[in-house]
C-alpha cells in the first residue's frame, strides 16, 4: 500500500501517545477514534437517547483527563519543556483594606497553582497609594515596596497569596486580588 502525503505528515508528527508507545496508528485509526469521540460527545450533549446515563461518566472522564493533564505537565516540565495551559475549576478572590495607614496587613492564605499568577489591583476608589511588598517592614517602609495608584494592578508568580503584604497612604483603602484554584 502506498502512503499518501497526509499519512507521511501524520507519521512525521506523531501524537504524544504514539511517541510514547513507538507505534504509528495511521490516518484510518485516528479518524475512527475521532468519530467515536465525537459520537460520544453528541450523545452526552443530548443528541442520543442514552445521554442522561452518561453524565456521571462524562464527569469522571473530565476528572481523569484533568488528572492526566496535570501529570503530563509535570513530566513535560521535569524534562525541561513548557507546561500546557489548562482551565481551573474555581477562583479565589478578595478585597483587602488597610484599616490604619502605615500599618501593613498580610493578604490571606490561598495557594497559587504552579505556573500561574495572583493578580492584585488597587481599588478604583482609592485616593492615595497602595504599597505591595514581600514582608511587613518593606510594605510599611514604602521604599522597598511597589506603589499602586487607583486601578493599577500586576500579576505575581508566587506560591501563596499570603506572601504579599500591603500598606496604604490613606486609612481604609486597599486592593483586590484574584487567583485560579486547583480545587474549590
Spans where pLDDT lies below 50 across 5 or more residues: 49-53
Class from helix and strand fractions? alpha+beta
Order of helices and strands: HHHHEEEEHEEEE
How many β strands by DSSP?
8
Tell me what you see in this structure.
- It is a single chain.
- With 184 residues, this protein is α+β, with helices and mostly antiparallel strands.
- The chain has helices spanning 5-12, 16-21, 27-47, 55-78, 136-141, and strands at 90-97, 105-106, 118-122, 130-133, 146-148, 153-156, 165-168, 174-181.
- The strands form two sheets. The protein has a four-stranded antiparallel sheet, with no helix packed on it. A four-stranded antiparallel sheet has the order 2-7-4-5.
- The longest helix is centred in the middle third of the chain and has 24 residues, at 55-78.
Could you name the key traits of this structure?
single chain; 184 residues; alpha+beta; Jelly Rolls; 2 domains; 21% strand
What does the secondary structure layout of this molecule look like, with pairings?
Blueprint: H1 5-12, H2 16-21, H3 27-47, H4 55-78, E1 90-97, E2 105-106, E3 118-122, E4 130-133, H5 136-141, E5 146-148, E6 153-156, E7 165-168, E8 174-181
Antiparallel strand pairs: 1-8, 2-7, 3-6, 3-8, 4-5, 4-7
